[in-house]
Amino acid sequence: MKKLALLIPALLAYSAIVAQPKSTTLPPALSSIKEADLKRDIFDIASDGFRGRRAGTIDEFRAAAWVAQKAMEAGLKPAGEDGTYFQFYNIKRTQMAANSMLSVNNQPLTLSKDYWASQPVDARFSGNVKWLNTMADTSADLQGKIVAMPILPPTPLPAKWISLYGYRYAALAIRQQSAILRRHGVSAIIFVADAVIESEGTLAFVSHNFQEGQYVVQGSPVTARVKPLPTLLMRGALAQQLKAGASIEADLRAETYLYPSVNVIAKAAGTDVKLKEEYILFSGHHDHDGIGNPVAQDSIWNGADDNASVTVGMLAIGRAWVAHPGKRSVLFVWHGAEERGLLGSRWYAAHPTVNKQSIVAVLNGDMIGRNSVDSAALLGSIAPHKNSTALVDMAYKANSSLTKFNIDTSWDDAKHPEGWYFRSDHVPYAQAGIPSIFFTSLLHPDYHTPKDEPAGISIPKLTKMTKWMYATGWLVSQTTARPALDGK
């Protein structure tokens, strides 16, 4: 009896433990997400061998083929078009043609070295230059004149800490000052770069972007535009020639052409008879900026954090999902041409390879491998960007149970000057009415420079962010009710 009396409390305690429901907070295949795999993959896809994976080039296609091969090796099935991992679409690009000509005092200048067009334009003009020292000189009659002036600081100045400060400075100044000159009826504008723009990193990025020209997805609606006014940016060394009433002759030519880009799409089937007809979509982009003007003698813009980090993170999540599928199915979409204006995600949101109504949530990632290992950001988590409280709550629950990041929501504020919410691939899906959130570890000084290399990635941070995305997706996969849109 004494032994039985001692045994009963132990049995009762054991029964209480067994009776408790098993937690579904932590996903079952976390061990499949390995630092070694992530490190191997990111040093591969963000290596110099892929030449920065610029959209519309053979380098982007090589990167897409690499992603598809890795997805297949992970056990993910093709979910693109025609039974493949791929979805191709055409980009329409307009840029300055290489045979554009410009001379000052009969001395030829070189496009993208001595001068840049702020937007592609077809224009022919010649004559003497009217030099303006400041905007106060616009009181003179400028109708039909070719004017040149030093670029002036924009008003207000961009915040000093903001990303791509020099480019924002240049673009805003050109936009403000050319609008004033246009109202005075000038025929062409030449801005002379100042010390801010002439700094090495800034001029490289400004040049890179002006060379890129303008991109749209083929078939995008055409909006009415004001006829472009020839607006050039010249190096500061040319200022003295222009001040002396230089003569100028220009034959500027824009060219428009189509070339393909590609999304890579894979899937893993769910286990529930009904829920497997629905999809959680993991989203990222595999392209970056390609070959550009060198900074510190490095001309390859590798894009290790932006966005090789999510490219390899999604592969790791795919391996985990194959090891232990959830109730719902999953889609992995590695978008192309994100850096050209979210073109791949805009295309897929409009032309999904599954029924759009079957996509219950989009978990997008962009830049998840830098900054403090203890902090992260979740965008789409506060108004007005939040479109699904239920989905946001799942992301917070996953973080609370597993990764325990200090979550920064300040960049989700509609008044934040970066406008970071609108700069990644979740946006077209949110606009299509699909619950969507955006995981990121935010910007850093190497953003959009050749310094964004694999050696700068924190592998522990990348692993932790990958696990957070995976854990959030797992929660979505296991719930009977799909995450509701707010207000529905």
From TrEMBL:
Coiled-coil region list:
none
UniProt-recorded Gene Ontology molecular function terms: metalloexopeptidase activity
Q: Which residues form the Peptidase M28 domain?
A: 263-469
Q: Name one GO biological process term.
A: proteolysis
What InterPro entries has UniProt attached to this entry?
M28_fam (IPR045175), Peptidase_M28 (IPR007484)
- The protein in question is named M28 family peptidase
Can you name the source organism? Mucilaginibacter ginkgonis
